[in-house]
Amino acid sequence: IKIFPGNVSENKIKQFSPDGIFLSNGPGDPAAVSYAIKTVQNLLQTKIPIFGICLGHQILALALGAETYKLKFGHRGCNHPVKNLDTGMIEITSQNHGFAVKKSSLSKDAIITHTSLNDYTIEGLKYKNRPIFSIQYHPESSPGPHDSKYLFNNFITLMKKYKKINAKTK
To answer: Which of 10, 67, 78, 140 is catalytic?
Structure first.
């Protein structure tokens, strides 16, 4: 595991030869982090799996051409119900954000995987033919005992698959 600052170049990340890239949470307007959006756009040219949480979710969406907007009322605290659209299950989540991804701005490759049951904003995305996905809420906080642990397992599975494919092409 290697932690890079938000203003790292894609070349520095590539030199590390990561099995996966985790885009972490953070405060503020995601559009203001233009340097990180540019870095993620360049990293999308690789086949390296990417998992984004909170601000990382928003930066990934922006890097893929979507837009974000400021929520009238930010999502703060725990016990926010989110529906997993793949399974139909409700996850109890912790949240701390004031921006959301604009549904109408998503590309045709974007698939909404999770939605807020409070205001129906996008809470999760994945993309066709790409080893990337993201979540708006904080699964690392385990608010509903372990409702979202599977996300980390999914990322580990993606990284193992990428590593096998990468080993075959060398």
So the answer is: 140
Q: Is 57 an annotated catalytic residue?
A: no
Burial class (CB in 10 A: 0-12, 13-18, 19+), 20: middle
The whole-angstrom separation of Cα 143 and Cα 148 is 9
Q: Among this protein's residues, is 78 annotated catalytic?
A: no
Question: Which residue among the candidates 54, 75, 114, 123 is catalytic per the annotation?
Answer: 54
For residue 144, what pLDDT band results from cuts at 50, 70 and 90?
A: low
The yes-or-no answer on residue 138 being catalytic is yes
pLDDT band at residue 81 using 50, 70 and 90 as cut-offs: very high
Query: From CA 144, how far away is CA 148, in angstroms rounded?
Result: 8
pTM (global) more than 0.90: yes
Say which amino acid occupies 92.
I
